[in-house]
Amino acid sequence: MGFLRRFLDGKLPVSDHARTMTQAITPRFEAADGWVIHGKTGSGWMRDAKGARDSNRPIGWFVGWAERQGRKVVFARLHVANRPYEEPISFETRDGLIADLPGILADL
Fold it and tell me: How confident is the model over 7-40, as pLDDT tens digits?
């Protein structure tokens, strides 16, 4: 998450234009309490003892930042399941974070 914080703060060796364009193309989602969430999903599978893909252990993640009234919060959520999924698990991971994040941030 440190990388993403440095990126958002303009502390990486990339141009302002590149940073602005990257932020512009990052998917954006509206959440409760006026939060706007920017982030990217991903998915894959855990590996078994032999290193082969374990279809019964999908993983999904959602990484990004949330903004409201000038406040920016960087987040990362990882979900490891114990059963196969028909759709990529990353969508469920993303939707769960979007639903949960306003409540989590209210407690901080």
Answer: 999 999 999 999 999 999 999 999 999 999 999 9
Report the SS3 class of residue 96: helix
Residue 39 near residue 62 (C-beta atoms within 8 A):
yes
Q: Are 86 and 77 in contact (CB under 8 A)?
A: no
Among 58, 76, 74, 57, CA closest to 23 = 74
- The vertex-23 CA angle with 108 and 67, nearest 5°, equals 20
DSSP letters spanning 24-92: HHS-EEE-GGG-EEEEEEEEEEEE-TTS-EEEEEEEEEEEEEEEETTEEEEEEEEEE-SS--SS-HHHH
Nearest to 31 by CA among 98, 104, 105, 106: 98
How many angstroms separate the Cα of 16 from the Cα of each of 20, 60, 63?
6, 30, 21
